[in-house]
Amino acid sequence: MVFVPEDRVVVTGELVHGLDPLPMEAYPDEWPATVGKIRELEFDSVVPGHGPVQHGRAMLTLFKDYLTELNQLAKNAATDGKNLVTLQSEVTPERLYSLSH
Fold it and tell me: How far is CA 68 from CA 19, 28, 62, 80, 97, in A?
């Protein structure tokens, strides 16, 4: 991640890249908090790893909430003894609270 305060720009690389996270290459439990820390910076624009430049904090809030929800669903599935195939069938964009609010 690169923060350019004089230009009020944050370049996140793969840390933020739309709604297709790659958790196998990350620390899922820390990821939402890291995105939350980025939100605390004084910036106007975010250059994500993929997709268009974003303006304001809305995308970071959505991404943080989305990651938090996915983490919780995965933990709940593990606790309930669900396998990956079951979890994948249950977790659809239409069923995610973070994407509908």
Answer: 12, 9, 10, 18, 11
